[in-house]
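User: If you would, consider this record:
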Amino acid sequence: MSVDATPVDWEQARALAYEAGRSAAGPAELISLPEADGRTLAEPLRALTDLPAFATSSIDGWAVRGPKPWRVIGRVLAGGVAAPLDEDGTCVEIATGAMVPVGADALIRIEESTRDAAGLVSGAPRSIPEWRLPGEEAHKDEELLPAGTAVDPAVIGVAATCGYEVLSVRPRPRAGLLVFGDELLTAGTPGAGRVRDSLGPQVPGWLRRCGAIIDPAAVAGPVHDTLDAHLEAVRGALAGADLVCTTGGTMHGPVDHLHPTLAELGAEYVVNTVAVRPGFPMLLARIPGPDGRPRFLAGLPGNPQSAVIALITLVAPLLAGLQGRPAPALTRVETAAAVPGRGDFTHLALARLDRDGRSATPVGHVGSAMLRGLSNAHGFVVVRPGTQAAAGDLVPFLPLPLVAGERP
């Protein structure tokens, strides 16, 4: 196992993680529409027929032919098939959503019509036709959504409108979490040399927002600071997960056993340390799986903010690739205050967006071991190596993950 610890450029690290996920994405599967929420389209969603499939009334009123007045010869409701209007001076009562009869010249709103004592209908059509034409929304075989689209209720609705009963989707990756560190408490207040674990409770939520499945039983720790304990825990977690995240132990200190564990498991580094501050001692490794598909281990630093930076730097792109989704994109914002650079490293500075999402203000309490700033932020201003950002500069912005499937 090669152990080159030269920090990888931050943008390159994100790209490497994404490509690792894409190359290991699972096969497509067919599932019913109600089960598809939160999945990812494995194939483009195409219209199975013209939408609408037939001329459809947009109003309640009359479908008429020829000059007025019109003699009523029937009624057509939504779901019914109207007989053609073959004679001038005839009409049928029509409901919203109903099929417009062949031969109709116009539709007239019920509230803009009259009916005389003989039952004849009069009225004037509006200048714009009051029906939807076949193919107005989409034509048969037209691509409505590309492969890689996150499925949400709106996508399910479009698929149902087209006539789909099942969708071809990517499987959701299963994730696990191992918390390392004998110094961690899982209950009570910190003190006497021990600190409260904040990553065990929060990392599963970030993983879910990136599309992974993680059950409470897949979260374990604190794992004792011995090589044997690490090996046993990682082997057990990999047995039920496509991705295992670990917290702490990514350096080479006296109780950091993650690198020896990976070597024992025959792992290959995708990324080993990243030129980013905070968070540089992060890693992503590929581990051979018993079925021929690789499993992944993401080593997150023990400091909480650094761990979250590692998660959105390496884990979010990896999970996007595993699901066949596009790589997480950066937006651009204007900085409301100066943000310093970090020399040869990319600086990710916690910031809060204004109401229109165009301006970002750096927040306080941003030490790598702090979470207060993170709880008040929407993401990170990205300051590239060798640069700094002045107030008013337009800079890249990395948003924190949204709820899975949520629209920005």
